[in-house]
Amino acid sequence: MSDVTIKFNYYGQRSKKRAFSDLAVKNLILGAVKRGVPNSTDKDIEDVMKVWLKHARERLKKKDAGKNQV
User: Fold this and answer.
1) Cβ-based neighbours of 53, under 8 Å, separated by 6 or more
2) pLDDT in tens, 5-51
3) Which distant-in-sequence residues (6+ apart) come within 8 Å of 56 by Cβ?
4) Exposed, middle or buried, 20 (CB in 10 Å: 0-12/13-18/19+)?
5) CA dist list (Å): 15 to 12, 37, 38, 50, 54
6) pLDDT at residue 10 in the model
7) Residue 15 to residue 9: CA distance in whole angstroms
8) What pTM, to 2 d.p., does this model score?
């Protein structure tokens, strides 16, 4: 496991993970999505980011399991 996303959650609370919401990249993502989907709200985009971060460990484990089957 070496994916940096497993070291973050959205707010950085209730764990020793860092807060993704404090990073400048969060605002870049919000801006990029709003350009592509103009009627999206910050909350809609943030909710998707939260779920994506929440499942980072599972995605990484699945990716690593696939490498071991080669």
Assistant:
1) 5, 8, 9, 10, 20
2) 899 999 998 888 999 999 999 999 999 999 999 999 999 999 999 99
3) 3, 5, 6, 8
4) buried
5) 7, 32, 34, 14, 12
6) 94
7) 8
8) 0.82
